[in-house]
C-alpha cells in the first residue's frame, strides 16, 4: 500500500476530500493538513494505481503526490543515508531529469538548496546514474522534469514524488483566454461548493473564457477531468499501461451525452468567442448556450436553478469605484429574474459582496492569483 496526498489550494481541502470519498479513496479519519504554507491536502492510500485514478478524476486538486519516505534527520550525512533508502527506481529511470521543491521550517537542515543537492546525490547514488537537475516551473512544458518535494519541519523529513506532471488545472482545452481567467480547479470548486444538483439550469452571466460553465458541463456529463491529458506517472518504470487503459474505458462507460440547460453570457464579444472555442475543445460546446449580452439582459429559464459566476472585483476597491454599482445591479437583477435560485460567486471583497444586497455566506476562503477570495453562496 502506498500513501498519497492530493494537494490543493488553501480552504479547498474539504472539497477534495469529498471527491476522494466519492471515488472510494479517502482514508477513514483522514487528517487534512497543509504540507507547506499556502496550500492544503487530503491524504489517501492504496495501490499505486490509486494515484492514476485520483489524477484522472479529481477536479479541485492541483497535483497528487506519492509519499515516498518520511524520516528524522538532523545532519546532512544522516539525511543522505536515509534518503538513499527510498526506492527511487520505482519512480525514476536512470538519467531522467528531476526538479525539487524544498521547504524547511524550524529545522537544523535549514538550507533548502543544500537539501535539494543532497537529495539529488542520494537519488544518483541509488540509481547509480546521474540525473540532470532542472528548475521547477509552473509554466507549461512539453516534457517537464520529474518533480520531487521535500518538507523538513523540526527535523522530520517528508519526501513526495509528484504523479501529476503539469498541474491538474491544465485540462488541455483552454487555449483562448479572456481577462482575469479563473483556473479550472477553482472553477470546479465553485460549482461543487454551490451544491448544484447537475440537473437544474445553471447560468454564468460573467462567463469570460467559459471555464465555469465548461467545468459544469463536464461534471454534468460525468466526464473525467483528466481524460485527454498526460501525467508524470506514465513515465515511471513500473507504469501499468493495461490498468490505465482499463480506467479510461471504465470512465468512458459512465459518461452521459445529455446535460441540463447551461447558459453563459458576457458583454465582451471577444470573451464569448474564446469561451465557445474552449468549449469546442472540451467537447461540450453543444451543452452550453453562449450569448453576448449585458448581465441586465440575461433570460433565465423558468423554475429554480443556480447562478455560479466570477464577477469582476478588481485588485483594489479604490481602483474600481464603479464596481459597487455593478454588484448592486447584479443583486437587483437576480432578485427580479431569478427569485428562489441558488447563487455562488467568487468574491474578492466583502464590501462588494454586501453591495449585492443578497444574503451570501462566505464560508470557503481560498486564493486566486495571489489574492484572498471567498466562495460566497446563498439563495436569492
What does this structure look like?
This protein is an alpha/beta fold. The protein contains ten helices and 14 strands. The protein has helices spanning 13-22, 49-57, 76-83, 112-127, 184-194, 211-220, 241-254, 269-282, 323-337, 350-355; strands at residues 2-8, 40-46, 63-72, 98-105, 133-134, 146-153, 156-162, 202-204, 262-266, 288-292, 306-309, 342-347, 360-368, 371-379. The chain has a seven-stranded mixed β-sheet. The chain has a seven-stranded mixed β-sheet with strand order 10-9-8-11-12-14-13. The longest helix is centred in the first third of the chain and has 16 residues, at 112-127. The model is unreliable at 34-38 (pLDDT under 50).
Order of helices and strands: EHEHEHEHEEEHEHHEHEEHEHEE
Tell me the strand percentage band: 15-25%
Please outline the major beta sheet: 7 strands, mixed
User: Helicity range of the residues?
Assistant: 25-40%
Overall geometry: elongated
Give a brief description.
With 380 residues, the protein is of the alpha/beta class.
Overview features:
single chain; 380 residues; alpha/beta; seven-stranded mixed sheet; 14 strands; 30% helix; elongated
Amino acid at each position: 500500500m502506498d500513501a498519497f496526498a492530493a494537494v490543493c489550494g488553501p480552504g479547498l481541502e474539504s472539497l477534495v476530500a469529498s471527491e476522494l470519498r466519492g471515488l472510494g479513496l479517502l482514508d477513514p479519519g483522514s487528517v487534512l493538513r497543509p504540507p507547506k504554507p499556502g496550500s492544503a491536502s487530503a491524504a489517501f492510500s492504496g495501490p499505486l494505481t490509486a494515484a492514476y485514478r485520483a489524477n484522472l478524476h479529481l477536479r479541485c486538486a492541483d497535483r497528487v503526490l506519492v509519499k515516498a519516505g518520511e524520516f528524522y534527520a538532523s545532519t546532512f550525512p544522516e539525511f543522505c543515508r536515509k534518503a538513499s533508502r527510498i526506492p527511487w527506481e520505482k519512480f525514476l529511470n536512470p538519467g531522467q531529469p528531476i526538479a525539487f521543491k524544498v521547504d524547511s521550517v524550524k529545522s537544523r537542515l535549514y538550507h533548502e538548496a543544500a537539501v535539494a543537492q543532497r537529495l539529488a546525490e542520494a537519488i544518483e547514488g541509488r540509481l547509480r546514474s546521474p540525473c540532470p537537475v532542472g528548475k521547477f516551473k509552473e509554466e507549461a512544458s512539453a516534457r517537464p522534469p520529474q518533480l520531487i518535494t521535500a518538507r523538513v519541519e523540526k527535523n522530520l523529513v517528508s519526501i513526495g514524488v509528484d504523479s501529476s506532471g503539469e498541474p491538474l488545472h491544465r485540462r488541455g482545452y483552454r487555449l483562448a483566454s479572456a481577462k482575469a481567467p479563473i483556473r479550472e480547479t477553482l472553477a470546479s470548486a465553485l460549482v461543487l461548493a454551490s451544491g448544484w444538483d447537475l440537473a437544474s439550469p445553471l447560468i454564468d452571466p460573467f462567463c469570460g473564457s467559459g471555464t465555469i460553465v465548461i467545468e459544469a458541463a463536464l461534471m454534468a456529463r460525468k466526464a473525467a477531468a483528466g481524460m485527454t491529458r498526460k501525467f508524470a506517472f506514465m513515465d515511471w518504470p513500473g507504469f501499468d499501461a493495461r490498468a490505465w487503459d482499463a480506467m479510461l474505458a471504465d470512465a468512458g462507460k459512465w459518461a452521459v451525452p445529455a446535460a441540463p440547460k447551461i447558459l453563459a453570457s458576457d458583454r465582451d464579444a471577444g470573451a464569448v468567442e474564446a469561451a465557445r472555442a474552449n468549449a469546442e475543445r472540451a467537447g461540450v460546446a453543444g451543452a452550453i448556450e453562449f450569448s453576448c449580452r449585458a448581465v441586465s439582459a440575461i433570460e433565465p429559464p423558468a423554475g429554480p436553478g443556480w447562478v455560479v459566476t466570477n464577477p469582476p472585483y478588481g485588485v483594489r476597491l479604490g481602483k474600481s469605484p464603479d464596481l459597487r454599482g455593478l454588484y448592486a445591479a447584479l443583486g437587483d437583477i437576480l432578485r427580479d429574474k431569478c427569485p428562489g435560485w441558488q447563487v455562488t460567486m467568487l468574491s474578492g471583497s466583502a464590501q462588494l459582496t454586501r453591495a449585492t444586497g443578497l444574503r451570501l455566506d462566505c464560508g470557503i476562503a481560498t486564493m486566486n492569483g495571489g489574492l484572498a477570495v471567498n466562495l460566497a453562496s446563498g439563495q436569492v
